[in-house]
Amino acid sequence: MKQIWLLTKIQLHTAFDFNLTMKSRKIVKKKNYTFRIALLIFILLMAVTSFIYSYSIGTTLKLIGMLYLLPELMMAVTCVVTFMTTIYKVKGTLFGFKDYDMIMSLPVKESVIVISRFILLYSINITFTLIIMLPAAVAYGILSAANPLFYAASLLTVLFIPVIPMIAAAVMGTLITIIASRFRHSNLFNLIITFAFLGGFMIFGFRMDSEEALGQMSSVLTKQIDRIYPLAAMYRRAVCELNPYSMLIFLMISGIALIVFAYFVGIKFKAINTGIAANRTKSNYKIGALKQGSPFKALYQKELKRFFSSSLYIMNTAFGIVMMMIGALATLFLSPEKLAQILEIPQMSSMAGALAPLIVSMCVSMTFITACSISLEGRNLWILKTSPVSIKTIFLSKIAVNLTITLPAVFLNGILIAVGLKLAIDDIIVLFLMPVVYAAFTAVSGLVINLLLPKLDWTSEVSVIKQSAASMIATFGGIAVVALPIVLLLGLSDIKPVYTNAASTVVIALMTCFLYHYLNTKGEKLFQSL
């Protein structure tokens, strides 16, 4: 147990950047303090939103005499999200992490390493679980005037809620990793299999929603959740009915499942990691002519290869492009009224042309490739800094990769949306222009954010791509920058929507120009000081 604690402590310090890594301790402490305050405010806002949402659902359930369904329903939602977000974190956290050789040289068992890495995954997911489940418990307690023991039971069980979904996701992620590692282009196969699985999971979820009428909150929903995930019913009995046997079984299943998982994965731990780290090459190499290119082309190719070599990088930074493609294809087969119903945006049916550029722009703003590009250089950044190329060229190569991923998607999906929604010419112009401007803004602002908040001493890509301050600010900041024009569009109903979108586009373009100027002045100094 002591070995697990010590190993987990070290990995948590590294993953969440608790160590001081910059030259000035005062600067580090100030930045860490500011970031932690901002993160705390964000978590509080999310918790308040979660409480309001849970309370409104609970009020409706109470009217039909099914308030007991609230904790079980929120637990099921938490488990689904935990499963879907963990399945692509397995590679890079549980397998294929950077300090594998160093950790394996320690005098500890493989099962101890597996448990410590699993706890690292757990620490990532438990925050989301607490944000959802604790406000839901408070809402249920207020509405039902619950016994004080209910709160004690909720606090105890909430710590075990993500365990089983994480194990299921880890098993699925491990299988995907094993299958992909048998192919030469393992990262490509890993990405394809993961996207296919998540896509099938989402389609199944939509099908269940339409066939079983989940929105009615009927007894059918309770039976459906219990049938798919029996622990949900056990959780309801343990918390709402304060059944001690259900509580004990719920906790024991989580603990035993973790031990069994650690044992069996520990047996194949070395084999799986060896398969991931192995390089497969062709034997038909032929000497050809040596080609010469510009420094920009060489850096661009390097950045593009780095992006496509990591399935985790693609899954987290380009998922917005996948959502955009799904939405664009949906416009060809679904009417604006049906899309408004699915997206829960009533105005969509009458303002399809006005909202389409903003929805596409939001998908683009989620593609924050540059927000990780500096940090992913890691301890090899000195090679880039000492290379005989200008800093501006380095910046442009990273921006170009971001634009390479977003711009083709904008033009291709823009054509599909324009045809599917039968947009007018002025709406089509804004549909292409606004996302292009947002693509430039996302690429430039992501690089600025990463320069201000670098993380170079990482041992796992997950800590940079998902857990770093730069990636979090880029993700939620990009969404916020799009959310404001949406609010203006819906609020300024007297003004023609195309004019509101055009004005927002001009503002974002000016912000992009300012950030680009900052990047070429103070940004170069920040890069030199890293």
Q: What does the model show?
A:
With 530 residues, the chain is mainly alpha-helical. It is globular, with a radius of gyration of 25 Å. It contains 25 helices and no strands. The relative contact order is 0.09. It is 78% helix and 0% strand. The model is unreliable at 18-28 and 201-218 (pLDDT under 50).
- Distance between the first and last residues' Cα: 38 Å
Order of helices and strands: HHHHHHHHHHHHHHHHHHHHHHHHH
Global outline? globular
Low-pLDDT segments, ≥5 res: 18-28, 201-218
Structural class: mainly alpha
- Give me the Rg, rounded: 25 Å
How large is the share of residues in beta strands?
under 5%
The total of helices stands at: 25
> How helix-rich are the residues, as a percent range?
over 70%
How is the main sheet built? none
Total strands: the figure is 0
Average of per-residue pLDDT values = 78
Can you describe this structure in just a few lines?
The chain is mostly helical. Helices cover 78% and strands 0% of the residues.
Characteristic key phrases:
530 residues, mainly alpha
SSE topology:
Blueprint: H1 2-15, H2 25-63, H3 69-86, H4 90-93, H5 100-104, H6 110-144, H7 148-158, H8 163-181, H9 186-212, H10 219-228, H11 230-239, H12 244-267, H13 269-277, H14 295-308, H15 311-317, H16 319-333, H17 336-343, H18 352-365, H19 370-373, H20 381-386, H21 391-421, H22 425-452, H23 461-465, H24 469-491, H25 497-529
Helix pairs in contact: 1-6, 2-6, 3-6, 3-8, 3-11, 6-7, 6-12, 8-9, 8-12, 9-15, 10-11, 11-12, 14-21, 16-18, 16-21, 18-21, 18-22, 18-24, 21-22, 22-24, 22-25
